[in-house]
Specification:
The complex is a heterodimer.
Chain A lengths: L2 H30 L7 H5 L6 H8 L3 H35 L4 H15 L4 H13 L6 H39 L3 H11 L1 H17 L2 H6 L7 H4 L4 E2 L2 E2 L1 H30 L1
Antiparallel strand pairs in A: 1-2
Helix pairs in contact in A: 1-12, 3-4, 3-12, 4-7, 4-9, 5-7, 7-8, 7-9, 9-12
Chain B lengths: L5 H5 L3 H30 L18 H34 L6 H11 L3 H12 L18 H29 L3 H10 L3 H29 L3 H7 L10 H10 L4 H29 L5
Helix pairs in contact in B: 2-11, 3-6, 3-8, 3-10, 4-6, 5-9, 6-8, 6-9, 8-11, 10-11
The chains are: A mainly alpha, B mainly alpha.
């Protein structure tokens, strides 16, 4: 293959790959920008008037207002869960930094795999507890607790994989300096702050996008945005423009998180 | 040389870090051990019954077995698509000298972080026979018949997970030391022979990991499949996780759901153990 031919093939491969990765958010943006309609095909033949997004963001209707509230709620849940998950994941990485690497990675992989079990496994012990609790916990607390249990293993895995070598170096340095543990943890936290941001973003995006836990344990008053999308249904059928616009809004943090994680990987390569 | 533990480095205060971490690990394990705990709980004499009807053995309930078979089909199909697809794309990138490209890694993180539900909605917009963009061009029973509905779930789930699996496969090729890489180029004039005799054997460990993770990801499919197929006509394409969820929330059969989850757990844990042993084997030389 000539140099020009190779360059063209490379550009073509990258374009196809980018299209594959961005297909879903692009489709949502495209559909959400069109006129609304029960028949999606007909609706899409209309003009681009951003009706779905306009109604979603500015309409006084009950569903649009519920969605806007649910975005704030979802942000709150995801931030709480991601903060706690990052702290414990950091603690896990500090604890296991001096283990033989195969043991640490083995445990981290088991944690990752637990997240990949069907989510009904996670819901069951919680429901047993709920059945037998003398007091009824607020729904937001319940949802956050279960989102946290579901997100923690991924955060612990990611933190271990990304930060362990640097944590190990810093701990050796602290031990040589005679620094006390609390100061050492503070110094280590600053030293691996970029990795911790990546872990936080990943945990945030996972908690934000979880559908089943809030859907199963919450109600309309406590649903985050991702669940609220399922309510955009009228007597005539689904409101596709609103669903697409809402799905795009819900996907946006993932796309932004992807860009942050990507930029981080680019800067670490450089 | 052995590494000093946190306790050896910092003494007593390290206990707090250990306690926090152990609590985290226990929470994660408890999440997965839920069904077992619940079944044990139902055996104690003072436990209140959660449902009026008696327990049915998981293997004698045809709907449960069909849902299990469907999930195993999706898991198997996704394993094939993701393993073969990620290896093929990683090798193509290798051929085009794109291995290890940060741009590719940045792009690959995006689909992973988009909710499954949004993927289900997007797929429905395209594939739904009545309203979908390609609805007119596709068979009207696409999301209703069992084989085509399951195939649709596999393809849409693959769209979400293929990029991240490609990164895993690509990273294995990127980790070939420069000297070894130069030797491969010298030894094999044809790229095809290099793939067969050098690259694929080198990727074996990572591809096994991709296969194991893909199997678990396929088996746990829930909201994407529910949104896309709604279980097919007469629940012929219902997957195990939605069925288990239905047992809990629709039929209020928490004990039955726990028993079925317990029945399935050895299969899932078998995969967990495989991943763990593979990861440890891959890292044996690191210590």
């Amino acid at each position: 293959m000539t140099t020009d031919g190779r360059r063209t093939a490379r550009a073509f491969a990258l374009s196809v790959y980018a299209a594959l990765c961005l297909l879903v958010p692009a489709l949502m943006l495209w559909v959400g920008a069109r006129s609304s309609g029960i028949d999606l095909g007909q609706a899409l033949s209309g003009s681009v008037d951003w009706e779905g997004f306009r109604r979603l963001l500015f309409d006084d209707g009950q569903r649009a207002m519920d969605f806007r509230r649910s975005v704030g709620r979802g942000v709150l849940y995801a931030t709480l869960v991601a903060a706690l998950s990052t702290v414990i994941a950091f603690s896990f990485a500090v604890w296991t930094a001096h283990w033989p690497r195969k043991n640490g990675v083995g445990l981290a992989f088991v944690l990752l795999t637990l997240v990949l079990l069907p989510q009904t496994y996670l819901l069951m012990p919680g429901l047993v507890l709920l059945h037998n609790m003398p007091i009824r916990l607020p729904e937001w607390l319940l949802i956050c607790t279960f989102l946290f249990i579901g997100t923690l293993p991924v955060a612990a895995w990611a933190c271990y994989m990304l930060a362990t070598p640097r944590i190990r170096n810093m701990q050796q340095l602290c031990a040589t300096d005679g620094t006390i543990l609390l100061d050492c943890i503070r110094r280590t936290g600053r030293y691996v702050s970029v990795e911790l941001v990546v872990v936080f973003v990943l945990a945030w995006a996972l908690a934000w996008g979880n559908f089943l836990v809030p859907f199963s344990l919450g109600s309309r008053q406590s649903f985050p945005a991702v669940v609220q999308i399922a309510t955009f249904t009228t007597n005539l059928g689904r409101d596709w423009a609103m669903i697409a616009a809402a799905s795009f809004v819900v996907s946006l943090p993932g796309v932004i998180a992807g860009v942050i994680v990507g930029l981080r990987s680019i800067s670490s390569k450089a | 040389m052995g590494l000093a533990t946190l306790q050896e480095l910092f003494g007593g205060p390290a206990r707090l870090v250990r306690t926090v971490s152990v609590v985290g690990v226990l929470l994660a394990v408890l999440g997965a051990a839920g069904p077992l705990l619940f079944v044990l709980y139902t055996l104690v004499p003072w436990a209140p019954s959660t449902s009026a009807s008696p327990l049915v053995m998981p293997w004698s309930d045809p709907r449960h077995m069909q849902a299990l078979a469907n999930s195993l089909w999706v898991a198997g199909g996704l394993t094939l698509v993701l393993t073969g697809g990620s290896a093929a794309i990683a090798l193509l990138f290798k051929h085009l000298a794109l291995t290890g490209s940060p741009f590719i890694y940045a792009l690959s993180a995006i689909p992973l972080l988009i909710p499954d539900f949004a993927f289900g909605v997007a797929a429905r917009m395209v594939l739904d026979p009545s309203v979908g963009l390609l609805g007119q061009a596709l068979p009207s029973t696409l999301l209703i018949d069992r084989p085509s509905a399951l195939l649709a779930v596999i393809m849409v789930a693959a769209l979400k997970w293929l990029p991240v699996m490609t990164v895993v496969a690509d990273a294995s090729l990127a980790s070939i030391p420069a000297g070894q890489q130069a030797q491969i180029l010298l030894d094999f004039r044809s790229f095809g022979r290099a793939v067969r005799l050098a690259y694929l054997p080198y990727m074996r460990g990572e591809l096994l990991l991709v296969a194991s993770l893909s199997f678990l990801i396929g088996f746990r499919q829930h909201e994407l499949a529910m949104e896309l197929t709604a279980g097919g006509a007469g629940f012929v394409a219902e997957l195990w996780s939605p069925w288990n969820h239905r047992q809990i929330f629709e039929f209020a059969r928490l004990d039955q759901a726990a028993l079925e989850a317990l029945f399935v757990l050895p299969l899932v844990l078998g995969i967990v153990l495989m991943i763990k042993s593979k990861a440890q084997e891959m890292l044996r030389d690191d210590d």
